Amino acid sequence: MSPKQFFQQAQAEHVIPNTSELQSSFQFGVEADELAKLILTGKKTATTSQYVQGEDDLPGKKAYDVILDSQDQPVCIIQNDQVSVVNYLDVDEQHAFAEGEGDRTLASCRKAHDEFFTEECKSEGTTFDPATAKVALEKFHLVYPK
């Protein structure tokens, strides 16, 4: 099933208003299956992504996204509750806990993001600098399936 069909199924079941639009569909990080499971169990209700001003569009507040597994198959639909841009080093314990990964501490969250962002930047021919990096923080909730 395509992400669009999955979204339309949620609309047909009256979980999502028919007037709503799908913002995007994507896999979370390098462990797409594990992270999708964390969303389904309610442990993952936030995410952090690199933000480069002028290059990135921020996700929309109240927007819907289809989360995909490692095979690009729809797993669930989330809705953004809050979106903000902060300095990487200003990400706090509360956000780290909401990410739902590892032991849910800020130290664990930073270690994972340091590694991920370093590799991401390397593949783009840039360097990740935690002291100057900006990140987009998203808080969301599971909409479908319930």
Summarize the structure.
By secondary structure, this protein is of the alpha+beta class. The chain has helices spanning 3-12, 32-40, 93-99, 106-123, and strands spanning 22-27, 46-51, 64-68, 74-87, 134-144.
Features:
single chain; 146 residues; alpha+beta; five-stranded mixed beta sheet; 29% strand
Notes on the protein architecture:
This protein has helices at 3-12, 32-40, 93-99, 106-123; strands at residues 22-27, 46-51, 64-68, 74-87, 134-144. The chain is α+β, with helices and mostly antiparallel strands. It has a 5-stranded mixed β-sheet. A hairpin with a 5-residue loop joins strand 3 (64-68) and strand 4 (74-87). The mean pLDDT is 93.
Q: Count the DSSP helices.
A: 4
Rg (CA only): 15 Å
Strand content: 25-35%
- Looking across the biggest beta sheet, what order are the strands in? 1-3-4-5-2
Q: In terms of per-residue confidence, which ranges show pLDDT below 50 for 5 or more consecutive residues?
A: none
Helix content: 25-40%
- Decide which structural class fits the backbone: alpha+beta
Shape: globular
Tell me, rounded to a whole number, the average pLDDT. 93
CA distance, first residue to last residue: 18 Å
Helix-strand pattern: HEHEEEHHE
Main sheet properties: 5 strands, mixed
Report the strand count. Answer: 5
